[in-house]
Amino acid sequence: MSSYEARFKVWRGDVQGGGLEDFEVEVNDGEVVLDIIHRLQATQAPDLAVRWNCKAGKCGSCSAEINGRPRLMCMTRMSVFGRDETVTVTPLRTFPVIRDLVTDVGFNYTKARQVPAFVPPEGLGPGEYRMMQEDVDRSQEFRKCIECFLCQDTCHVVRDHEENKQAFAGPRFLMRVAELDMHPLDAAEESGLDRKRTAQDEHGLGYCNITKCCTEVCPEGIRITDNALIPLKERAVDRKYDPLVWLGNKIRRRPASSG
Amino acid sequence: MSVVDRQEWDVVVVGAGGAGLRAAIEARERGARTAVICKSLFGKAHTVMAEGGIAAAMGNVNAGDNWQVHFRDTMRGGKFLNQWRMAELHAREAPARVWELETWGALFDRTRDGRISQRNFGGHEYPRLAHVGDRTGLELIRTLQQKVVALQQEDFKETGDYESRLKVFQECTVTRVLKDGERVSGVFGYERESGRFFVLEAPAVVIATGGIGKSFKVTSNSWEYTGDGHALALLAGAPLLNMEFVQFHPTGMVWPPSVKGILVTESVRGDGGVLRNSEGKRFMFDYVPDVFKEKYAESEEEADRWYDDPDHNRRPPELLPRDEVARAINAEVKAGRGSPHGGVFLDVSTRMPADVIKRRLPSMYHQFKELADVDITAEPMEVGPTCHYVMGGIAVDSDSAAARGVPGLFAAGEVAGGMHGSNRLGGNSLSDLLVFGRRAGWHAAEYAGERASARPRVDDTQIDAAAAEALRPFSAEGEEPADGPPENPYTLHQELQQTMNDLVGIIRREHEMRQALEKLAELRVRARRAGVEGHRQFNPGWHLALDLRNMLLVSECVARAALERTESRGGHTREDYPAMDRTWRNVNLLCRLADPSGGFAAGDPVRGQISLTRETTEPIRPDLLALFEKEELVKYLAEEELYE
């Protein structure tokens, strides 16, 4: 096993302001960025604020921007950086800083509340649900979401546009609408709720111009744009009036690229 | 006195994992105004890490399954130490709890006829685990989270306020349960973001804080698992039950070092994965204990046939209960037949086509690829035991989940003891959360409703004492310098983890446990000097300093109980007493705080903070005993129990 001293820049501060602080810190074989942040806490900066839980890529707590790219710290291995490269860790830019690497992600919880819940079908009791695997596959893909909010962070509709936050739910919650809309037994329509319509009118689907930034940063590899947002757009409006849908279909036909 | 924000609720649930959220949903649906306290963000609780599935005898895949078979498997897995009434309720109610999740929007994997698919798991006679790939815990937590939101949406429609009847306090930690005489009167805690203290006054408190794994070095548990609820109950005067039983999951990652302990789901074996040693041998055939001999295959051929024809073949020994598999791996490594990084090999690559592996075990594929550069479709994984679950916990009434001795206190999920006996079967945890989470919420709401007109009073001196206790780490510097310099909480934590790992781990020896008790006493003294830098706003050093109290209390319980129980059973293996002893079958060990007034002899390793008592368990109800063959029962029960 080989160790080395890495150079880190970590943003420290709070709502009043702050800046990048330099650290030199030991790195060992196989470690991830979160290990290094923990080492900083244990040896150099005991009050360095960071969120984390599972350290296994399952809970979506340790989101940050590493060298400017939104990532999970627990799933970013140090081996992807050169040994002489300085690694810069900053908080998610789209959300207000609380302290150091911790941001106020309350925006997401507000948006979650605005999406009407699953409507159980009438006349089917517990244990009577029958659904085919191929019919639940689509919604299951979206339910892989670990709510790390990296897609919400990277989405340019809100990244530098505070003013859009009111009207726009962000990829995660538009995907939630798509998930419910594609649920084989959701009875929203029977209850008078048109999910496609609300996606457009209440959750700001029209703001999305399918640049696929959300898909690119998703640590679960969910094809948010192709499988959730574009189909939702197609269902929401008549396709000939939305040039973006036309464009999206062109883009979608390209061979799937990596990442 | 401190100025502390106070609110009144009917039921306070401490913990927002599966059990806590299920309890909160139930309490709110039964009309109680309910607050949920969540150590992390809402939806991040440790439950998300559960992979394999929810055990429930729905009989969707094998119609032979029913609650009696599930009950039998659970009792066998726990080596008959289970609080049998809990095991019965659990087996009876689990299917309804799973089906209910579907009506809240959960999407489980399906059978060909469109029902919920069920998979095989260790110790379960039939395919029984409802699952979603290998991310079942995420589905469970998200479904409950979304149900909470659905209820809040209903309340918003009615009252104009989402949080009028059900509120989640995110990133808050409870440090004390408050009492009015014998009864619970509320909780004291702090908010991480601001560091401010708060009090929630309530006649009923449900503890659902999960486990204790962060006291061990190699663990699959997340940072929240510091035994908070166990300690809160002890400090409130409630006893803990059978704390010596700690489950080491047989398959954690062993390399690279930074991920050591991260879980490799049992589904890998349930779906066909096999364990091999460095000689390429499927060694589990050599480790089938006598009590399980009739149930497990004797040859690889028979074991392999079982996957397609379970009615005419016996199951592979890789699917023995977790305690057996963990001990076997430990023995192989010790005998020099381990893998390069000190584990054994777990292989699916030669057992299933690559696309099937990627579909059935997507998280495992991803986890090994990303964290260890291992492609599990092409090569075996290296795995070894990791601290995973505590069977011991708050002693509760089986039906109501009420903690013993403290009216108004309830407990559910991993923090409650009894249900799993000496060893938990995989899949029985998620079902436990749902069954007993619901029961705890139900009885807490009922209890609070009965006391609506005579609410307990919150005592200001308790609030002041709790605030002073919580602030102590900030004044460690400069206070009684003769005691020594302030201690770094991170260092103390690392020493504690090393101690528990090395001295009270998977194989236990008397002299090592005595050594552990001495080390714990030393750490207790030093922990009183744990100091922190900075201020109260989102300060992880401070939070850790406060969590240390809990980890030290719980670790002492584990060490003392483990030293007392002179036999090996389930999650408790003594090298000096290697056999299961029938005379211990009906013995529960209860841990209580030795000096509830708070002036305990923290530095004295002999006295310590915990006192132990033995108690004889209630005899198993005859109709439940009748579910087993006499020949099987004689292996577990003492003579006199058999003839009663």
Features:
heterodimer; A: 259 residues; alpha+beta; Ubiquitin-like (UB roll); Fumarate Reductase Iron-sulfur Protein, Chain B, domain 2; 2 domains; five-stranded mixed beta sheet; two-stranded antiparallel ribbon; 10 helices; 7 strands; elongated; B: 644 residues; alpha/beta; FAD/NAD(P)-binding domain; Flavocytochrome C3, Chain A, domain 1; five-stranded parallel beta sheet; 18 helices; 20 strands; 35% helix; 15% strand; globular; FAD-dep_OxRdtase_2_FAD-bd (chain B)
Low-confidence stretches of chain B: none
CATH class of the largest domain in chain B: Alpha Beta
Could you name the CATH homologous superfamily of the largest domain in chain A?
Answer: Alpha-helical ferredoxin
Whole-number mean pLDDT of chain B = 94
CATH superfamily of the largest domain in chain B: FAD/NAD(P)-binding domain
Q: Determine the fraction of residues in helical runs of chain A and give it as a percent range.
A: 25-40%
SSE topology string of chain A? EEHEEEEEHHHHHHHHH
Ends apart, CA distance between termini of chain B: 59 Å
**Structural class by secondary-structure content of chain B:** alpha/beta
Mean pLDDT of chain A, to the nearest integer, reads 92
Low-confidence runs of chain A: none
Classification by helices and strands of chain A? alpha+beta
Strand content of chain B: 5-15%
Task: Report strand % of chain A.
Answer: 15-25%
Oligomer: heterodimer
- CATH top level assignment of the largest domain in chain A: Mainly Alpha
Could you name the CATH topology of the largest domain in chain A?
A: Fumarate Reductase Iron-sulfur Protein, Chain B, domain 2
Number of domains of chain A: 2
Keywords (chain B): Coiled coil, Flavoprotein, Oxidoreductase
Protein name (chain B): Fumarate reductase/succinate dehydrogenase flavoprotein subunit
Domain Fumarate reductase/succinate dehydrogenase flavoprotein-like C-terminal (chain B): 493-590
Organism (chain B): Streptomyces composti
